[in-house]
């Protein structure tokens, strides 16, 4: 596990709070309205991309996922499905590390594709865990079983990827993290 500085811990807390609070408060409303899990994936993977972009150390996405899980359970103790996202954050962390941070964030097209793979593969893990262990049968059947649930989460991961990449590119265009400049 990487050594985290105070700024790293602040970033972990910031992005975990964003994900955990929005998941516990807004995501249930959107899920009730539309019956699809896209919002929780969208917020989660955008948060993971931004946290990894900011810190660029192994363990940051996992830490964001674990802290967001704690926040989620404090605000919504019945939200056990979030454990799927906890596992997904570990997968995202491993994939970002394997793809190398300088490739993910230093090379525009290749990096964007690496982050898309990391987001959708991690979302697939979340979708599988949630669909297989936490979803009620009627809701699961409505969307094509576990496989359909995996696809829905992958779509949410892709939306989160678009938002995360757009945000970090916008921040870089404004001079943050460019050529070693720290935040």
In short:
With 183 residues, this protein is mainly α. The protein has 9 helices and no strands.
SSE blueprint:
Blueprint: H1 6-25, H2 27-34, H3 38-55, H4 60-75, H5 83-99, H6 101-106, H7 108-133, H8 137-142, H9 145-173
Helix pairs in contact: 1-3, 1-4, 3-4, 3-5, 3-9, 4-5, 5-7, 7-9
Structure description:
The chain has 183 residues and is an all-alpha fold. It has one domain. It is built from nine helices and no strands. The longest helix has 29 residues, at 145-173. The mean pLDDT is 92.
Rg result: 16 Å
Number of helices: 9
Report mean pLDDT, rounded to a whole number: 92
Which percent bin holds the helix content?
A: over 70%
Q: Supply the helix-strand structural class.
A: mainly alpha
Number of domains: 1
Uncertain regions: pLDDT < 50 for 5+ in a row? none
Beta content = under 5%
Notable traits:
mainly alpha, globular
């Amino acid at each position: 596990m990487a050594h985290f500085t105070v700024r790293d811990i602040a970033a972990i807390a910031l992005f975990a709070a964003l994900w955990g609070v929005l998941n516990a408060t807004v995501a249930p409303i959107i899920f009730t309205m539309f019956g699809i899990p896209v919002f929780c994936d969208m917020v989660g993977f955008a948060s993971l991309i931004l946290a990894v972009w900011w810190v660029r150390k192994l363990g940051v996405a996992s830490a964001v996922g674990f802290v967001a899980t704690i926040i989620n359970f404090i605000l919504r103790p019945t939200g056990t499905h979030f454990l799927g996202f906890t596992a997904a954050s570990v997968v995202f962390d491993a994939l970002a590390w394997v793809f190398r941070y300088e490739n993910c964030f230093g090379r525009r097209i290749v990096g964007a594709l690496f982050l898309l793979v990391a987001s959708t593969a991690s979302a697939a893990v979340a979708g599988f865990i949630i669909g297989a262990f936490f979803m009620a049968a009627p809701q699961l059947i409505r969307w094509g079983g576990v496989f359909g649930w995996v696809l829905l989460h992958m779509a949410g991961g892709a939306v989160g990827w678009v938002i995360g990449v757009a945000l970090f590119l916008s921040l870089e265009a404004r001079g943050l993290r460019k050529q070693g400049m720290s935040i």
